[in-house]
Amino acid sequence: MLYLDxxxxxxxxxxxxxxxxxxxxxxxRDGAVVLEEIEGVEDLPTxxxxxxxxxxxxxxxxxxxxxxxxxxxxxxxxRFLFPPRELLATVRRNGTMRVERPEEERPxxxxxxxxxxxxxxxxxDRVFMDLDPAYRSRRERAVFIGVNCAEPGSTCFxxxxxxxxxxxxxxxxxxxxxxxxxxxxxxxxxxEELLSAVESRQATQAEAAEVERILxxxxxxxxxxxxxxxxxxxxxxxxxxxxxxxxxxxxLACGNCTSVCPTCFCHDVVDGVSLDGEVATRTREWASCFxxxxxxxxxxxxxxxxxxxxxxWLTHKFASWIDQYGTSGCVGCGRCITWCPVGxxxxxxxxxxxxxxxxxxxxx
Length: 364
Prior knowledge:
The protein is of the alpha+beta class. It has 2 domains: 2-80 and 104-220, no CATH class; 233-264 and 289-355, no CATH class. It has 13 helices and 16 strands. The protein has helices at 6-18, 78-81, 115-128, 133-141, 158-161, 189-195, 205-220, 233-237, 243-248, 256-260, 306-325, 335-338, 346-355, and strands spanning 2-5, 22-29, 32-37, 48-53, 56-61, 85-94, 96-100, 108-113, 143-147, 173-177, 181-186, 201-202, 267-273, 279-286, 296-297, 300-301. An 8-stranded mixed sheet has the order 3-2-8-9-10-11-1-12, with helices on both faces. A hairpin with a 2-residue loop joins β2 (22-29) and β3. The longest helix has 20 residues, at 306-325. It is globular. Residues 360-364 have low confidence and may be disordered.
């Protein structure tokens, strides 16, 4: 384990910018910690904390001037690697048909991603890496600087999902914020190369012990727990559970949960044509299984009720995703709980299904 002081951390960010990377890091905007392009350390949310709960989020002042003294806001790397609206191609007719592809962007350097979000990227890799050249290019060219989570939110349950609070995968460098600097772990040869541009030293035994203390404390303060011992079978056994209808009476089918989820990948492809017929475009846009048109098939909406749509979302996330991709679609970040307008809690819903497991008459 290495140690990087605050000045060295600033030098690291400057070296990334000088190397042509677009720095994407946390900053405060519109009352939340969001991921945006940043210039350097001065744009990070110094002395900022968060309070989160079901359907509730607000920023707080945090003494001590820490840069990463918060859990996470609504954003994840998904918004940059898999944009909400992406132009795939433009076709122009000028004597001949000519297809134009968007120009390649600057590579991203993500700063401050938590362990749950690094795991989420690896989940989306299973969906896009073999099928989407644009995603693959962004992913392979990007740098990932993770931060071990010292301040889990009250809706977080990454410890239950095995995805945090320690960064264990998907990072080039992983930091733990200490009083005057950062303990540092190198995850890839690219990370070693990045470090060559700044001064670092070996961490002391006391600094390494402080990292372990911070992570143990974060695990103990996790806001939620979820028993995943018998999933996906638990949900498959309870497809006719009355809880689906009960939660549908609260659900607005607004799609907030799918928008903030760092792993949801549903999308539509939309074609457009200019009025003169000379230019056509193909655009990919995020979609949500909570919308009626998402389940349109064979001339009708297959999942016409909110109960059916919520069941589809939750059982896909925690059950059939495992069958499809060999991993859960949930990383325990809790964003769907925090940013649900009516505070629906997936851990509570699954616990309710579990509590009555075996008592429900199931459809054959």
